[in-house]
Amino acid sequence: xxxxxxxxxxxxxxxxxxxxxxxxxxxxxxxxxxxxxxxxxxxxxxxxxxxxxxxxxxxxxxxxxxxxxxxxxxxxxxxxxxxxxxxxxxxxxxxxxxxxxxxxxxxxxxxxxxxxxxxxxxxxxxxxxxxxxxxxxxxxxxxxxxxxxxxxxxxxxxxxxxxxxxxxxxxxxxxxxxxxxxxxxxxxxxxxxxxxxxxxxxxxxxxxxxxxxxxxxxxxxxxxxxxxxxxxxxxxxxxxxxxxxxxxxxxxxxxxxxxxxxxxxxxxxxxxxxxxxxxxxxxxxxxxxxxxxxxxxxxxxxxxxxxxxxxxxxxxxxxxxxxxxxxxxxxxxxxxxxxxxxxxxxxxxxxxxxxxxxxxxxxxxxxxxxxxxxxxxxxxxxxxxxxxxxxxxxxxxxxx
Length: 400
Description:
Layout: E1 6-14, E2 19-28, E3 31-37, E4 46-57, E5 59-64, E6 66-67, E7 70-71, H1 77-88, E8 92-97, H2 104-119, E9 128-129, E10 132-134, H3 157-164, E11 169-173, H4 181-190, E12 194-197, H5 204-212, E13 217-218, H6 228-235, H7 243-249, E14 254-257, H8 266-276, E15 281-283, E16 296-300, E17 307-311, E18 316-317, H9 330-341, H10 345-352, H11 354-359, E19 377-380, E20 386-391, E21 394-395
Parallel strand pairs: 1-4, 5-8, 8-9, 10-11, 11-12, 12-13, 13-14, 14-15
Antiparallel strand pairs: 1-2, 2-3, 4-19, 6-7, 16-17, 17-18, 19-20, 20-21
Helix pairs in contact: 3-4, 8-9, 9-10
């Protein structure tokens, strides 16, 4: 082992169950070799001290569309790299590019560009692609949200079997009430995907059938999902239970929140944390191309025909005034969740790292600072602002 491949990064290290103060993470050839108290750093190893700072595992974002005026649905390697690098500056080191509604050709271009970037990855590429989240186009027509309704459709077997059969696709979403949803879930599970329900107005019975077929997660809790009131509009009375009740009652279900301070109040974020807990609840960004871009009008989805949305510098809204995903990185989600809940820092960081890594089958390699995992680290200020990011033990320098 040569000296140049070994580096000790020192600070207050956030472990899954505690903060180890004045410690170091020893990185060797891109992997974590040890986490020890700072005074145990061996001689002859390059040392980088971050006094008074937190050393956290790199964040894992399982639901993200864009940043820096680019969207994954633009379908180019340039767009993928732009988004990945932008999110890395906000602490995300493993990312799941997420599709929206669109044509089969647009989905093909998006996934192919992600495959190309993953195959040629270096630390300069920014966040590693953990997999693609096949999210659109199988949404309920009455819950399509800001996604272009023209690209929405019910599950098409030959289409989803083709895309979910690609090795890079690791998360698969479909609204539970759609015709053919159960077959979609069963195939997605057999393909090794984490199976989710999103943009859905499903009731309890439809969710139970989905669960039996392999569905285990619902997307962005309280956003574009069924509720007692929305189901009354669909079914009348007696009123019915929906996605919120199904997740709260079923300990095998997981979910996620957009903790940008715009979508959900602190009270709702605290409720979700207390009722669901950090091992079943993820932080995610749902960020679009307005992140790290000036206020203005942008396309959500493909630059060619995506829905027009408007950013005011704080939030992104569609023509109807409703929120249209977010324009914040994972650092913002961590900061807001910490403020809203007052929870212990290891629990907050877990929701942005180890929990999404575990759900997507990556926890053997990322998600926590433990020997044998990739040396992907984030240096945070006491205010949880990102100061430095390391990918494979190499300091990331934005090149946008």
